[in-house]
Amino acid sequence: MHRHGNIDLQLLTDVSDCENCQSQVPCLGGGLNPEERKLFRKTIRRRATFNKGARIFKAEKKFKSLYAIQSGAVKVQAFALNGTILISGFYFSGNLIGIESIGDSFYRNDAIALSKTIVCEIPFDQLENLCDSIPALRHEVMMLFVKKIRHTEHAIVCGRHLHAKTRLLRFLQYLYDQNGIHRDDFGKRVVLPMSKGDIASLDFHVPKLS
Q1: Can you give the three-state secondary structure of 129-171, one letter per residue?
Q2: Residue 21: CB partners within 8 Å, gap ≥ 6?
Q3: Residue 50: Cβ-neighbour burial (10 angstroms; 0-12, 13-18, 19+)
Q4: What is the DSSP letter of 93?
Q5: pTM greater than the 0.90 cutoff
Q6: So what's the pLDDT on residue 4?
Q7: Minimal CA–CA distance to 45: which of 18, 71, 63?
Q8: Contact of 96 with 67, CB cutoff 8 Å
Q9: What pLDDT does residue 79 have?
């Protein structure tokens, strides 16, 4: 294991690391047959642990990889011309980050760990090459683009017609569905890894949180 600042890097040399992944939601490759899945897992270069506040990737750095979140939480943010922080989303176990930078030479945003977070690095050039030989994987990657476009379209077209409190409730419902922790009474509780300021920065029309 190698240490770099507040980041632990561990090279993945065995596909069993994917078999024992803490995420209950597959990042990619869920629809592949065993032989194809083995090839995909070989593209995952390393697993890294980021402490709270550490940057997984930084805007304007060369785009090289996507990152699959194994555990923890991440916020993706950019800066407006006046320096205001604009948060584009929060991501949890099983999510892929860096998708919005595909097609660019550099990352478009910063990705920051909101808690101790483990991610797996997927070099994009290797993923592209593998998609050429595995149609099912190419389809999964294409579906990621489709979901991203639909989400953005819904946020722009539909979200602006919703009351601010309704948007906030939908966001909390999303967190409940994505990150809810099961309790002994079969209900769920939600731990918010982000700050109130982060939530407010996600949408300027969200009411102030006291």
Answers
A1: HHHHHCHHHHHHHHHHHHHHHHHHHHHHHHHHHCCHHHHHHHH
A2: 70, 120
A3: buried
A4: T
A5: no
A6: 44
A7: 18
A8: yes
A9: 84
Summary count for the chain: helices (H), strands (E): 6, 12
CATH fold group of domain 2-202: Jelly Rolls (2.60.120)
Per-residue pLDDT of the chain (210 residues; tens, 9 = 90+): 444 444 444 433 344 456 666 665 666 766 788 888 888 888 877 788 999 999 999 999 999 999 989 889 999 998 888 888 888 888 988 888 998 898 899 999 999 999 999 998 999 999 999 999 899 888 888 887 787 777 666 665 565 666 767 777 777 777 777 665 545 555 666 777 888 788 777 754 343 443
As a whole number of angstroms, the distance between CA 67 and CA 24 comes to 16
- Residues paired with residue 76 on neighbouring β-strands, in sequence order: 89, 111
CA dist 137 and 33 (Å) reads 10
Which strands make up the sheet holding 73-79, listed edge to edge?
55-57, 110-113, 73-79, 85-92
Q: How far apart are CA 65 and CA 200, in angstroms?
A: 29
> From start to end of 13-102, where are the E strands?
46-50, 55-57, 65-71, 73-79, 85-92, 96-97
Residues 6+ apart with CB under 8 A from 116: 49, 50, 51, 52, 72
